[in-house]
Amino acid sequence: LNHSCEPNCAVRFDLADGALLEARTTKPVAAGDELTIAYIDLRLRREARRAKLLREYAFECTCARCEAEAPRAAPPRSRGVG
User: Fold this and answer.
1) pLDDT tens, position by position, for the chain (82 residues)?
2) Measured distance CA(38)–CA(61) in Å, rounded
3) Strand residues in 5-66 grouped as ranges (E)
């Protein structure tokens, strides 16, 4: 299962049952949608989430949530004539 900061699954590990991994959807999933889980604490701010994923999992997150929370460049100022 891959990571997303807006996962559609949650996982549960049960070592008592011989290392069982159970994944359950947490929201509706359409046929063909990727199943995702969170590798990190989702309460972290975008910058902290991305830094932790890069440091611990060696990738830069580009999920929909990270893209939506990305800082936007300010529009260029128009210069007055004259």
Assistant:
1) 899 999 999 998 888 877 888 899 999 999 999 999 999 999 999 999 999 999 999 999 999 999 999 988 767 776 766 5
2) 11
3) 9-14, 20-25, 36-37
Residue with tokens 């580009």: 62
Task: Name the token pair of 7.
Answer: 């996962």
Q: What letter represents residue 75's amino acid? A: P
User: For the whole model, what pTM was predicted?
Assistant: 0.77
Pair type for strands 2-3 and 36-37: parallel
d(CA 6, CA 20): 24
> Residue 65 corresponds to which tokens in the numbers above?
């949530």
Measured over the CA atoms of residue 62, residue 63, residue 66 and residue 68, the dihedral's sign is positive
Residue 37 CB burial class (10 angstroms; 0-12, 13-18, ≥19): middle
